[in-house]
Amino acid sequence: MKLRTVWVSDIHLGTAGCQADLLCDFLHSIECETLYLVGDIVDGWRLRKGWYWPDQHNEVIRRVLKMAHRGTRVIFIPGNHDEMFRDYAGLSFGGVEVQLEAIHTTADGRNLLVTHGDAFDGIVLYARWLAFLGDQAYTLLLKANIILNAVRRKFNMPYWSLSSYLKMRVKNAVQFIGKYEEVVAREAAQRGVEGVVCGHIHSAEIRQFGSITYYNDGDWVESCTALTEAKDGTMSIINWAENVRNRASKQAAVEA
Predict the structure, then answer these.
(1) Are 35 and 64 in contact (CB under 8 A)?
(2) For 221, which DSSP code?
(3) Among 21, 16, 5, 4, which Cα is nearest to 224's?
(4) CB-based contact 109:86 (threshold 8 Å)
(5) How many angstroms separate the CA atoms of 92 and 84, rounded?
(6) Alpha carbon 152 to chain centroid, angstroms
């Protein structure tokens, strides 16, 4: 796929829940002028508790650096899980630019604020200890997700996210996501831009709030999604896990 811009976030390299194989498959399948890494690329919270870094996580880094070397502009906007990189804003490493925020101008002339989004999450901002507690529960859920998908692979079944399924069926989570989207869109309006791109809450979405378009690129531990901009400025969410499932179904149909 030849695209103008791609946004990915919440990869959480350094955790067992990271779907690095699917992300590498996606990155090998695209060409783009600009790649935004919208925070929580590396999970510093988890790595401080114990080192976990398989070869496939290195492959994600290698692929991003290769894209930068071949001419893709790569912009890294750290999130709350990799906040240690915020101290290096304004610098460039291996062709990867580190910025706290960015303004992206689409092919059709719209200005979009690009930010990880944790600044708009009241739990992270005002009750850090509660955020860490929630992170522990979320980690347990992701471990269950890993076990479930290991069993599914033995039966040649494609990836499916238990954590994402449960989250979207919990009333409080749905209400939080809706409120979060409204707050982010309101900030974009105050900044005088036409839209905002963020991550953080692991919920890919395109929604309109008055004159503001809210975009969330999702994540690569649950939904395996990315936000893309075509050459004409058209914005879309790609669900790569679903894409892989469809490919597998077509292959199975051909073999049958």
Answers:
(1) yes
(2) S
(3) 21
(4) no
(5) 15
(6) 24
Range 173-178 contact pairs with CB under 8 angstroms and sequence separation of 24 or more = 176/201, 177/201, 177/203, 177/205
Give 130-166 pLDDT, tens digit per residue: 444 455 555 665 666 777 677 777 777 777 665 565 5
Q: What angle do CA 203, 206, 211 make, to 5 degrees?
A: 135
Angle of helix 240-255 versus helix 20-28 axis, rounded to 10:
80
Q: Alpha-carbon distance 110 to 101, whole Å?
A: 16
User: Distance of CA 217 to CAs 2, 42, 53, 94, 225, Å?
Assistant: 18, 16, 24, 24, 6
DSSP state at residue 73: E
Token pair recorded at residue 209: 């709030």
Both tokens assigned to 192: 């005088």
DSSP 181: H
Mean of all residue pLDDT scores within the chain: 86
Positions of E strands within the chain:
2-8, 31-37, 73-76, 92-93, 96-98, 102-105, 111-114, 195-198, 205-209, 212-216, 225-229, 235-239
The pTM assigned to this predicted structure is 0.80
Give which of 217, 234, 200 is closest to 110, Cα–Cα.
Answer: 234
